[in-house]
Please model this.
Amino acid sequence: MSLKRLQRTLAIQIRNYSAPVDGSIPPAKRKYVPSSGTYPQGFQVSGTYVGVKASNTRFPDLALITSATPCSGAAVFTKNKFQAAPVTISRETLQKRSGEGLHAIIINSGCANAVTGKGGLEDATSMGSAVDACFDPPPSPSSTLVMSTGVIGQRLPIAKILARIPTAYSTLSDTHSSWLATARAICTTDTFPKLLSTTFSLPSSPSTTYSLAGMTKGAGMIHPNMATLLGIMCTDAPIPAPILQPLLTHAVDRSFNAISIDGDMSTNDTVAILANGAAGGSPITSLTSPDVQKMQEVLTTFTQSLAQLVVRDGEGATKFVHVRVCNAASFPDAKAIASTIAQSNLVKTALYGKDANWGRILCAVGYTDAGSIVPQDVASIVPERTNVSFVPVDGSAELKLLVNGEPQAVDEERAKVILEAEDLEIRVDLGTGHEEASYWTCDFSHEYVTINADYRT
Model:
């Protein structure tokens, strides 16, 4: 083999953006991994090695999150018609318990337990039951939510998983390293564990400091309504289930349901939150209280930060793109248009190629079916009012590409500099109203194809 041919072969085989096989975190992603955290009282977690996927010989792939104090719980699930067994079982658990009295969440990576028939349902049920058995007395009905992520259409190695659940329980801890190991255990093609935490207070208990921690996973098959994406959040604030569910639904609609990597919706996506009230303070009792308004702000901001980590770890991605649609006739209008831009492969490939091809952005705006959302007498998109810009993240002036429907003389050199950056905002001003929506996406590279061409191997 000639030297040039060898170099070409090696260049094809080297993966610059996918997860290293040795489990190390790429240097460019290390800044997103926290070195410390502020975690909610009463919760303990663990990440345990099982070997669910044959190729995994040493990394944790079983995550357990527990609270000694019974929790309120809420969740938002995938809308894919082929819903995975753990989605069905977890939804049933929440319904049976009316969102109250929950103790744990158990998650495996490496196998999705999706499209696995009756046996898959039995496996998911047995995972929850095995965790319940660790508590004294074991709760009935089950108080454990179950999640799985990985390859679709394969049965879990359930005996191996069940054998390791007691170990997962016995190694529970509330340390930062345990939270990080747990976040690592839910990863598949992720290049780094995604973990965040924050503190906040509520108007009714201003002297009480509450904590909110969350982890998520996902790098491909990411598109609402959610993705091959799991999100787990825990707080020690006192929030009952009837209030927790609408808080989560609102937040997810503006975060996990506002990201796209490849336009594919998974069978397994689940975002759940547990609240155990361990920090004390006055319970939130009304959806109209100032506490709910503050909690909604905290939770929405937090879920957006978590969701953005998924986009930053998009398979093969080299760019993080914020699509902002402003001055729209309605919020659904703005979100529909932002979503269309975010999932356009032509837009995404142009961004990868650092090509300021704004015509592709405008094309996506134009074919969005936004007009069916607003009243017939309200114009969703008026070409003569439409503006498109690139907005640099360094604070410098936006680069105007289209102003009131008129193309601008684009400074290609400046456009190239803007598109060289890792972060970029695409701003579309519709000029038809006062509503705004954001979507977060990434570019579409050769590496994405390479990763997904041999995902099972």
Remarks:
- The two ends are 26 Å apart (CA to CA).
